[in-house]
Amino acid sequence: MEVRLDNRKLTGTVKVIQSKSFAHRILLAAALSKITSGVETEVKLETVSEDMEATRRVIGALEREENVLDCGESGTTLRFMVPVCGALQGRRQAETGAGEIRFTGRGRLMQRPMGPLFEAMAPHGVSAFYEDGQLVLTGGLTAGEYSIAANVSSQYISGLLFALPLLEGDSVLNLTGKVESRPYIDITLDVLRQFGIRIEEEVPDGAGAPDAVGDSTSGKSTDITCRFRIPGGQVYRGPASMEVEGDWSNAAFWLAAGAAGGGPVTVRGLNLRSVQGDMAICQVLRQFGAEVEEDAASGSVTCRCPKGMQLHGTEIDVADIPDAVPVLSVVAAAAAGDTRIYNAGRLRIKESDRLQTVTSMLQALGCPVDEGEDFLVIRGQGDSGYLSGGTVDGAGDHRIVMSAAVAAAICSGPVVITGAEAVNKSYPGFFEEREQLWEAHTEKN
After folding, report:
1. Distance between CA 398 and CA 434 in Å, rounded?
2. How many other CB atoms are there within 10 angstroms of residue 425's CB atom?
3. Between 152 and which of 138, 219, 320, 386 could a Cys-Cys bridge form, CB atoms 3.0 to 4.6 Å apart?
């Protein structure tokens, strides 16, 4: 699908969709509640994205004890389900001698890294390998001491945190090296607590010292910086029903639109006490010079660029907010001066190589970018006026497509986005919501 967007100001109010990060975890925990305790939890979802549908589809297949699981393009689904299936497979083997499980997927899914997770599970009874474009899982997970690098993907850690309570014996999960994307681990722990799962976290003596961090670029370290003690034989037991809170990752697009395009844009339906890491978008936009008003009572946030003022470049450590990088790059392009985004190396293993695709997007629209191994330096065009506009390849990446759509508000010419259907991965109604925020742009803000 190709979309053409003209230069128009975005202003108004939008209700954010529910959190994809919470929805994945609650759906999985609800399924494990049904499997382990027989207690069913109604998960109230207003909108179901392709990624959420992938998790629901795999859960349904698990409940039917099918052996081929289609994860679509959802990395979260795959990385959560591999250890969970390993744990369930161990239970099935003891009862029925169940065989292998095969995971299928689309796009880059089967090329996205899984090695550290496989290595962590291998000493504990599970073998994983690729065959004919599928991921094959054999064996059953056993309890014990696990170690995994903490700076590659928090999804590996979350998957193990879901799986290890299901095993017969007690387990320990050691995180080695620098812990990144910690807020996503916190979301997992929050959901597990709500389903009655007990996990004890401890920080070993000396953790956090310079020599305990290890090699943050390779992800390899023998130094334990965080440890989870996980009793075995636990039973998931959920409440009768659960709401899914608003998605700060997707709210970031609208708030950034308010900052870059002048605004104001108000987003409602947010939990201002959330453990979601992308809630940090409010503080980062303030760093650029945007005006951000938060109303915890109503669950709303309003963002604008103060009238007569100019956003300015800044430095942003994105180790804990990697998903916000594409749209923050658009705000950086609208600012005066340079913005440096760093600790971003893991963006190369997303739906696209997001450092490369962010660079291509901004360059196509007329903004110079310097791309490094794990950083971007964006040469903001705020002093010289609008970006030129142009054609952006969506690269099969929902966050690139949505960021390009936000950037249209600061381009003098039209923005054409190819592959725009990628938004369905996380935000099916994105372009309809954007349409509601358009108004004729009559003068430069």
Report:
1. 15
2. 24
3. 219
**What is the 3-state composition of the chain as percent helix, strand, coil, each rounded to the nearest 5?**
40, 25, 35
Length of the chain: 445
State the Cα–Cα distance between residues 17 and 427, nearest whole angstrom.
8
pLDDT digits (tens, 9 = 90+) for 168-184: 999 999 999 989 899 99
Question: Of 323, 374, 393, 397, which is the active-site residue?
Answer: 323
Active site annotation includes 323: yes
Asked if the model's pLDDT at residue 214 lies above 60, the reply is no
Instruction: Give the position of tokens 């509640």.
Output: 33
- Residue 221 in this model has a pLDDT that exceeds 50: no
Q: Which of 89, 86, 437 is nearest to 267 (CA)?
A: 437
281 has pLDDT over 70: yes
User: How many C-beta neighbours within 10 Å does residue 303 have?
Assistant: 28
Question: Which pLDDT belongs to residue 212?
Answer: 35
Phi and psi at residue 8, in whole multiples of 5°? -145, 150
Tokens at residue 69, please?
A: 């699981």
1 close to 170: Cβ distance less than 8 angstroms: no
In the predicted structure, residue 319 carries a pLDDT above the cut 90: yes
pLDDT at res. 434:
93
Instruction: Convert the pLDDT of each residue in 249-260 to its tens digit.
Output: 999 999 999 999
User: Quick one: CA dihedral 8, 10, 12, 15, positive or negative?
Assistant: positive
What dihedral do alpha carbons 375, 381, 383, 388 form, nearest 10°?
180
| Contacting residues for 213 by C-beta, under 8 A, at least 6 apart | 177, 178, 221, 223, 225
Instruction: Tally the C-alpha atoms within 13 A of residue 58's C-alpha that lie toward its C-beta.
Output: 30
What DSSP designation does 231 have? -
